[in-house]
# Entry
Amino acid sequence: MFKSFHLLLAAFWLFALNACQQPEPQYSGNPLFSEPFTADPAVLVHNDTLYLFTGSDEQIEGRDGFVMHKWYVFSTADMVNWTNHGAVLSVEDFEWASHNAFAGHAVENHGKFWWYVPMVHKDSSARVHEGFAMGVAVADHPAGPYKDPLGHPIIADTTENSIVLNIDPTVYVDDDGEVYFFWGSWNEVRQVKLKDNMVELDGPVENIEGLTNFFEAPWVHKRNDTYYMSYAAGYPSRTEYATSKNINGPWQYRGVIHDEIPNSPTNHQAIVNFKGNDYFFYHTAGLPNGGPYRRSVCVDKLEYDENGLIKKIVRTDLGVLQIK
Ligand code: FUB
# Structure
């Protein structure tokens, strides 16, 4: 009896000691990187690794206006330890483009990585409205090297039924292999099918109805049999969203999931499931010398309720927990 009491006590102390030695939980922290300034996140998962594609804010402190020439790729296996693969794509990689490396979007298809990006067209005859056009670069690995396979944009001011500001592409490869290209800004949103080759339009450019308060930055993801279209709503922007059982709509408006950001009218979201966890990426002006043209990418948890609706995002300084 006396002996087993001592054994029990020893086991208790061993357990207590072990509990004390458990490592502290690690968090990503927000913003994710202290430099460079990053904006407009897009994400994809490949081989158990999450790849984050961002724009790059190069404006000097105190000045107004976007100064953006290049895009970065970062990767992580655990949400805490990130590798910066560098500015692997820039305006100079597109012969037809002159400036303004705005929000891009990358997807995997046919074993390659397709990075759709907007920039201002060099050719004045192609600048009918604001002059933005969207092209694509392709690579064998998410971190590049990337090359423009076309030498010209896929969508420009001259494309029938395009919009005043042709920016913020998002491309979705559906389960049946069909490819859809969405984009939009300044309250207008469009959709068009892409051919299987990922670089040519396959049909007319269509309007999309039902995206209440749409301003820009569409992002499509699918969970179970529901399509979710999230977007920047109003300006300064919140993030709002709609759902549909069909990628061609009709879309049912579902409300606000992310409030406005202090000191940045834009916050450009991306949504992804990685190793069983749902994440909401966005940007803020949250670095000490940040601002509306010196933004930084952040990440927080995204959660669904029992009906599959997205709960309001809670922004944190801690970010998200390390995962295996
Ligand atoms: O970063 C330039 C533009 O600001 C993006 O294209 C928009 O989504 C907004 O974030």
Notes: The pocket of beta-L-arabinofuranose is lined by residues 39-40, 55, 66, 102-103, 167-168, 216-217, 266, 268 (CB under 6 Å). The chain has one helix and 19 strands.
